[in-house]
Amino acid sequence: MEKSLKEILETKFKGSVFIDEPLAGYTSLNVGGPADIFFIPDSVESLSGFLRLLRKYKISFIVLGNGSNVLFSDKGLRGAVISMSHQGFKRIEVESNCVRCGAGVLLSELSRKTESLGLSGCEFMAGIPGTAAGAVISNAGAFEQDTGKIIERVESLDFSSRRRVFQKNDLKFSYRYCSLSVCKLVIIGISFMLTQGNVVSVSRRVEEIKKRREEAFPELPNAGSIFKNPDSIPAWELIDESGLRNMRLGGARVSMKHSNMIVNEGKATSKDIRNLVEIIQIKVLEKFGIALEPEIRIVPEFLNVQ
Prior knowledge:
The protein is an alpha+beta fold. The protein folds into three domains: 3-83, Uridine Diphospho-n-acetylenolpyruvylglucosamine Reductase, domain 2; 89-215, Uridine Diphospho-n-acetylenolpyruvylglucosamine Reductase, domain 3; 219-298, Uridine Diphospho-n-acetylenolpyruvylglucosamine Reductase, domain 1 (Alpha-Beta Complex), CATH 3.90.78. The protein has seven helices and 20 strands. A five-stranded antiparallel β-sheet has the order 6-7-15-11-12. It has a four-stranded mixed β-sheet with strand order 1-2-5-3, covered by helices on one side.
């Protein structure tokens, strides 16, 4: 990194920017080397200024939510990571059936808030460790519900720091896909349109979902489902039928509790996990002729320049 750029970053964004920051502590898998630049904006204004600087110096970036669905390289990231974890992006506002929240709001918190008001639509978020923005980008879903069904509006900044607003009709959603995932932008806020239910029925549904998640999820560090489900059969069944449940590679292991999850037994590297992912793909393809597509985001050391 140029000395002048480092000085600019540390002066202009003092307390919010970190150089050569290890990424392992920011991910649920607890792996990942250092990022050249790690930035935690405290406002839309600081985010805007940072994006302008990245554009000027032609630095690539990735946006990080809660780190629960991402695998960084052991060598880290040559570029910038923008973490939306500051409290400035964790506000929740409710007006009738419309819930507006910042990009960094945890889905578990959003579920608790709407549950307390008897608003229905966010029940499936209970127990999901991601953020609101992450749920939009991946169209997170479970138990026959998904994020796309309740989206009303998305606010963002593009790479030129221009504010862009998308209404529901501007967006396309499908299984684990949102059209915004291919856009070069940073989500800053989301509005959800929910339906009025009652606290008792919504709470009952939330508790049911939380119980089912607790029964399925392993206790060791993991990133949830590693693969998307093919149309014909759940990914975990394909992995099971390929004899891969509990398979180990280095410090990584296919979970005994849920075979579409890989756990870090304590000393796993990103390479261990990545190699295990590839072995699963090869074995399933050989046995069933089905190519499993990762649901987890595998981030290379070098990104394309924005």
